Amino acid sequence: MTSIDIAAREAQLRARLAELDALEATNEEGRAVVVLDQQSVGRLSRMDALQNQAMAQETQRRRAQERVRIAAALQRIDEDEYGWCGNCGEEIASKRLDVDPMAVMCSRCAR
Description:
With about 110 residues, the protein is mainly alpha-helical.
């Protein structure tokens, strides 16, 4: 891969990290502890609140996983290993990296 491609990928990955940080800030309220006060809300409203909390927590978990993958991709860039399959050592197709810039393996090895 050329240094221009890698620089563009690095910028893309760093932009996604910034986007995840912004999304995390907006999602913080949804993960808060649900107060089960029967005087203020009915049973269905509490169930909805618990379901929304669970979905917000799962969203946070997925974002954390994506952050780990981005950090690993940035580390591969720093080590000049980005764009090379971690299994067979062949170059990862540019189209595959367009779809998933955090890809670790070529499409053949990922099957």
